[in-house]
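Hi support team,

I've been running sequence recovery on a batch of backbones for a student project. Most finish fine, but this one hangs at about 90% for roughly twenty minutes before it completes. I'm not sure whether the input is malformed or the queue is just slow. I've pasted the structure tokens below so you can try to reproduce it. Let me know if you need the job ID as well.

Thanks,
M.K.
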């Protein structure tokens, strides 16, 4: 059954082509094949636009059958007639396929006759695609001896203009009448909308008006046909050249009856003009067949294109009006709904504002407590002054209320433990993590753990477990320095450590191979190493976070490690506190009025 249905459709298409060809032969103005309108061209293009490309075998079969029966009556051998018929059939099939393809690509089958600009595209496409059928057809006729090569140009043009005229007249009519119109869609949309918001009584009144409108339209249609009949009788019965009087009636049809009425009117007027010319009673008849065909087809083409464009423009305007009315009605309902929603939203906003004020007060209090805790655990000046062999000065300024930087100086049993770190991000969560690190460092130090690798491993495990419990994604870079008797042992991964020797020589100690970020993995023992640095009198050690080196000015230029090294190198002879003050002032000058995005921490150590 699935194979039978497509075959039946193909046979139906072939039959339609055959009947259309017979009609085309009947519309010849003189003996032979000079048809003023070739109906199969318009019928088959409409078939492909509505039914798809898979129906092309029906076009080929119908074209071959129609032309074989027409050519077998000649005195040529039967196989020559068959070959010529195949050539003509291939031309007609390629013409329909080419037209359908370009219309779908350039316009789209559902919008061909909906807009005025699309009508001109349609005409241009068909003027081009109709070249294939006359080219293959006339060449086949010339090769078969049915047409002289000297008549190639005349035959080609006659064929081409007949195909174009057939498409202009019949394709819009078939596509418009056999495809659901946009008007129906709009009526359905309006009906659905009316069910939502328009009362039942108004619907009853609308139905009554529709019945009255249909009666008036029927009377108007009968009047239109009566006037067409009178003009046809005058033009073709009495042979007066008044065919142009049909043009106002076509305009009337376009305005009053929509696209369906306009396409039907085109077919009726074209049929009257062709029939009158076939019987030789039209003003289009001249002394030569060429002139007669040209005048008739020029008339049909001009009225067709004009009427199609006019109906499309009118349809666009009507659809726009209907859409505008629908939008206005929807807007009224939406305004009412939005007004109610805005009232509810205003009440909700008021409630949320009150809640937000309370939350802001709570958050501010929490941040202030955390900030104070950070400040409270920073080393005091008297603690730093008690360290006999080192001058130490520190500075820390958070970008927000609570920073993510950490530094601490602790002293136990003659060993000075110096720590500096940077938690990812800043704010409350980062600040809490710095407090955890300070507590863990002090606790492990109180346990008299002197092995830097074990110290670092225990610290990492403690912080890692807390981060997992917090369900946080934070971690930090951390460097720990143990100082005793002029030797500085550096452990952990952080920014490069700067050493400015007495006299201004700068050394950089890379920490990338001395550790691993804290809190990222449970066990980092294999990554931990240390580096010993001997300090002489007057040597300066600089520890810092990336808030200094990555500080930006208004142009986005970073402060940089090189500038920090230069400022310390130029002032190494000053005290640790003075070096710290000079460096911070230089950073502030660089930043200027630009926003500070990261915490700034700087620690200066100087060997006495």
């Amino acid at each position: 059954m699935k194979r039978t249905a497509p075959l039946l459709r193909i046979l139906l298409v072939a039959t339609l082509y055959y009947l259309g060809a017979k009609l085309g032969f009947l519309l010849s103005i003189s003996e032979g094949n000079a048809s003023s309108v070739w109906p199969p061209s318009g019928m088959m293009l409409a078939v492909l636009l509505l039914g798809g490309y898979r129906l092309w075998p029906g076009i080929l079969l119908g074209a071959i059958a129609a032309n074989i029966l027409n050519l077998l009556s000649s005195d040529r051998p039967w196989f020559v007639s068959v070959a010529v018929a195949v050539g003509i059939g291939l031309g007609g099939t390629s013409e329909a396929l080419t037209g359908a393809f370009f219309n779908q690509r350039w316009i789209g089958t559902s919008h061909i006759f909906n807009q005025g600009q699309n009508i001109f595209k349609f005409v241009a496409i068909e003027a081009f695609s109709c070249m294939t059928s006359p080219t293959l057809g006339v060449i086949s006729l010339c090769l078969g001896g049915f047409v002289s090569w000297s008549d190639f140009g005349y035959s080609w043009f006659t064929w081409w203009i007949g195909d174009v005229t057939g498409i202009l007249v019949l394709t819009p009519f078939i596509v418009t009448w056999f495809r659901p119109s946009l008007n129906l869609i709009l009526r359905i949309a309006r009906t659905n909308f009316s069910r939502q918001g328009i009362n039942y009584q108004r619907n009853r009144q609308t139905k009554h008006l529709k019945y009255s409108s249909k009666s008036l339209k029927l009377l108007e249609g009968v009047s239109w046909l009566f006037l067409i009949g009178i003009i046809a009788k005058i033009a073709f019965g009495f042979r007066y050249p008044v065919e142009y009087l049909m043009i106002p009636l076509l305009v009337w049809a376009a305005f009053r009856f929509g696209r369906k009425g306009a396409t039907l009117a085109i077919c009726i007027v074209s049929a009257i003009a062709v029939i009158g010319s076939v019987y030789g009673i039209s003003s289009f008849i001249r002394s030569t067949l060429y002139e007669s065909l040209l005048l008739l087809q020029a008339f049909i083409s001009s009225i067709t294109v004009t009427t199609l464009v006019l109906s499309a423009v009118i349809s666009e305007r009507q659809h726009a009006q209907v859409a505008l009315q629908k939008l206005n009605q929807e807007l009224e309902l939406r305004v009412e709904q939005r007004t109610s929603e805005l009232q509810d939203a205003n009440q909700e906003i008021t409630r949320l504002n009150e809640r937000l004020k309370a939350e802001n007060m709570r958050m501010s209090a929490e941040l202030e407590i955390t900030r104070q805790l950070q400040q409270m655990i920073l080393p005091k000046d008297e603690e730093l002054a008690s360290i006999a062999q080192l001058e130490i000065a520190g500075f820390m300024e958070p970008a927000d209320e609570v920073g993510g930087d950490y530094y601490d100086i602790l002293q136990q049993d003659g060993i000075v433990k110096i720590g500096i770190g940077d938690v990812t991000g800043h704010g409350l969560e980062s600040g809490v993590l710095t407090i955890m690190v300070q507590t863990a460092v002090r606790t492990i130090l109180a346990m008299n753990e002197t092995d830097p690798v074990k110290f670092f491993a225990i610290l990492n495990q403690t912080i890692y477990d807390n981060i997992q419990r917090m369900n946080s994604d934070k971690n930090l870079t951390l460097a720990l320095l143990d100082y005793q008797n002029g030797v500085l042992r550096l452990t952990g991964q952080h920014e490069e450590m700067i050493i400015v020797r007495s006299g201004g020589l700068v050394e950089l100690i890379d920490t990338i191979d001395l550790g691993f970020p804290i809190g990222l993995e449970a066990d980092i023992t294999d990554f931990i190493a240390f580096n010993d640095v001997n300090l002489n009198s007057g040597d300066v050690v600089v520890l810092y976070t990336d808030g200094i080196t990555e500080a930006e000015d208004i142009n986005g230029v970073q402060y940089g490690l090189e500038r920090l090294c230069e400022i310390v190198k130029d002032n190494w002879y000053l005290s640790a506190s003075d070096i710290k003050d000079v460096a911070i002032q230089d950073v502030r000058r660089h930043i200027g009025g630009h926003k500070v995005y990261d915490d700034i921490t700087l620690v200066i150590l100087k060997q006495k």
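--
Follow-up from support: It reproduced on our side and the slowdown came from queue contention, not your input. Residues 349 and 355 are 10 Å apart (CA to CA). No action needed from you.
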